[in-house]
Amino acid sequence: MKTTLTLIALATAASAQDPYYNITSKPFQLVLTSADGSISDTVSACHTGAALESLCLSNSNSTSKPDPTTYDTFNFNTSIYSQAPTNHTDLGVPGILTWFLPASNIGPVPSSVYFNYDPSTDSAVPILTPGSDRPQLLSFNDQDELTVQSYVEWTANPPKAGEQVGLKRWYACKTYFAGYQYENLVWGLGNHKPENPTCVAVDVKRVFV
């Protein structure tokens, strides 16, 4: 019964076309680099539950761009109703990170990234799930760096609206999600390094394929 329900859900997601985020970029890989040189890799979708994937380090072990595969090739979907911040067009147009889940019975299933928050820690794990019901809004700036836009100054007392910025709080960390242990791309919550001792700060850049 559970398998049947999962297939029905996947079929629904595969046939549905998102009426809002319907402008799709060219395919690209996400390349991670750390300041200390310990990380130079791409990320790939890796199984972490029924029709769920996290963004794992591909372990390409190569200084050159690896050949693209189904699992490390993504798209970015935006909307005709969205635009870059008026005074900061360099921050890019907000949208959603998308990927097609291979499904032999029904064809590729469109999926998008949301942030999974665990209240017991200070980082969030990006998870790919079919459809786009609860996506995390992201942006690519004019340097093709992946960011989260914000206009709130949380360190002000009291917090207030401020200048629009593109935050880059990305880390490569060993994680635990739904029983799966991987080295994942992770988002840090707050302007500090996550408590997870394995986390290494990384820049995330798209490279079109």
Task: Give a short summary of the structure.
This protein has 209 residues and is mostly beta strands. The protein is 7% helix and 45% strand. The protein has one helix and 15 strands, in the order H-E-E-E-E-E-E-E-E-E-E-E-E-E-E-E.
Topology diagram in text:
Layout: H1 2-15, E1 23-24, E2 28-33, E3 40-49, E4 52-57, E5 75-78, E6 96-101, E7 109-117, E8 123-130, E9 139-140, E10 146-153, E11 160-167, E12 170-177, E13 180-188, E14 200-201, E15 203-208
Antiparallel strand pairs: 1-5, 2-3, 2-15, 3-4, 4-8, 5-6, 6-7, 7-8, 8-13, 9-10, 10-11, 12-13, 12-14
Which short descriptors sum up this protein?
three-stranded antiparallel β-sheet, 1 helix, globular, 209 residues, mainly beta, 15 strands, disordered N terminus
Descriptive report:
By secondary structure, the protein is mainly beta. The protein has one helix spanning 2-15, and strands at 23-24, 28-33, 40-49, 52-57, 75-78, 96-101, 109-117, 123-130, 139-140, 146-153, 160-167, 170-177, 180-188, 200-201, 203-208. Strands 1, 2, 3, 4, 5, 6, 7, 8, 12, 13, 14 and 15 form a twelve-stranded antiparallel sheet that branches.
How many DSSP H or I helices?
A: 1
What's the β-strand tally? 15
Q: Supply Rg.
A: 17 Å
Question: Structural class of the helix and strand makeup?
Answer: mainly beta
